[in-house]
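Sequence design from tokenized structure. All designs in this work follow the same two-part layout: the structure record, then the generated sequence. An example of the structure record is given first.
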């Protein structure tokens, strides 16, 4: 469980990774916690900037995690954080935003790319996410101290202007990649130094100083303590995602064999190196709904790993009923079809039972599970971020008539 700081105790607190800081119980804007933790940052918006002129004290990136069009995300296993800029509606230039967030990250990433020596003047980024508690709807979780870029990413990859469209109107926004540094907590003393314009004081974290002086990224990598996802972790976590999943299941439930091609497409969407060779015929599929290859190595000299895919269009968790889980029997069937040097993929609109998940992981079977929550999030990541867009995909590529 995360440590929770009540609103009455947050002033003067250090910033502790994954700790939750509550706002006032009345829920009013004046009781928003970030502005109390980091005075001068403002109490609204995804970008919150402290400091005037070219030199900023710090930048706060705040996400609600609820915007399907712009899915900000933290990868705990690599320490990378993907954040989308603030030009989220058509009618404006990429850098013409009220908060000036896109212009700021453009300038900061440009400085990182073009500066040869010490990266003085680049502000630290503090990342927060919405995390309501019983006592505070405005509570936030501190995700960490971040810097622009990531190990192995070039200057053409760490910040990219992407196109999107709404109601037929096209516009651009930034997709920026940051690295969350291996820093467990931010001291109040360093925050005071930053406010005074001293980024590299003796109170600065070592991982920050290493990055400023040598560009050495030391990411905060948190390997999972277990490889078994609980059922609750396989179920969509917002009402929008739940509705999308129900719509998908409803589309295919009376003709589940049609779900096989959709499942193959979902896996292909998850990774550009996936190649689907065949959607097998139901009467002669040998227990495999699709077969394909995964590309490894160089594009000019690839090596391929073959896989078998099974699709299970089972009832997801609904408000008035339990999900129809994929159990040991179904998973064992897939395992039995995997030949030497192959792996398996199981895609379901529902969830994998704990026992089936446990047996696969403990016996080290090479099985990839894609559950209901994963399906929705893969669609969103590929631009299918609205009910209408997904309905159009289903009706045009996977019609029932």
């Amino acid at each position: 469980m995360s440590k929770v700081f009540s609103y009455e105790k947050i002033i003067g607190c250090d910033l502790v990774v994954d700790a939750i800081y509550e706002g006032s119980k009345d829920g009013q804007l004046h009781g928003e916690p970030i502005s109390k933790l980091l005075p001068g940052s403002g109490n609204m918006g995804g970008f919150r900037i402290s400091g005037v002129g070219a030199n900023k004290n710090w930048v706060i990136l705040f996400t609600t995690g609820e915007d399907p069009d712009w899915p900000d995300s933290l990868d705990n296993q690599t320490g990378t954080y993907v954040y989308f800029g603030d030009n989220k509606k058509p009618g404006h230039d990429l850098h013409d935003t009220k908060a000036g967030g896109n212009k700021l990250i453009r300038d900061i990433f440009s400085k990182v790319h073009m500066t040869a020596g010490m990266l003085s003047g680049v502000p630290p980024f503090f990342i927060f996410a919405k995390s309501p508690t019983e006592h505070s709807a405005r509570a936030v979780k501190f995700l960490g101290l971040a810097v622009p870029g990531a190990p192995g990413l070039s200057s053409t990859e760490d910040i990219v202007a992407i196109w999107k469209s709404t109601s037929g109107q096209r516009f651009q926004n930034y997709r920026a990649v940051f690295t969350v540094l291996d820093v467990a907590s931010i001291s109040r003393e360093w925050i005071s130094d930053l406010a005074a314009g001293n980024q590299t004081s003796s109170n600065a974290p070592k991982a920050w100083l290493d990055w400023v002086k040598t560009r050495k990224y030391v990411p905060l990598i948190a390997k999972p303590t277990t490889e078994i996802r609980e059922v609750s972790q396989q179920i969509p976590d917002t009402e929008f995602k739940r509705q999308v999943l129900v719509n998908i299941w409803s589309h295919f439930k009376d003709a589940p064999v049609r779900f096989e091609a959709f499942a193959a497409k979902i896996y292909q969407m998850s990774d550009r190196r996936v190649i689907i060779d065949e959607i097998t015929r139901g009467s002669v599929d040998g227990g495999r709904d699709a077969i394909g290859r995964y590309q490894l190595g160089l594009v000019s000299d690839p090596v391929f790993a073959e896989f078998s895919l099974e699709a299970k269009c089972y009832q997801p968790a609904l408000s008035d009923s339990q999900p129809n889980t994929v159990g040991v029997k179904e998973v064992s069937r897939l395992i039995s079809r995997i030949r030497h040097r192959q792996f398996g993929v199981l895609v379901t609109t529902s969830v994998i039972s704990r026992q089936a998940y446990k047996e696969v992981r403990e016996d080290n079977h090479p099985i990839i599970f894609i559950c209901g929550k994963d399906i929705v999030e893969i669609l969103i990541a590929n631009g299918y971020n609205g009910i209408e867009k997904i309905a159009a995909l289903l009706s045009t590529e996977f019609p029932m008539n």
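The chain has a mean pLDDT of 90. We note this feature because it recurs in several other targets discussed in the main text.
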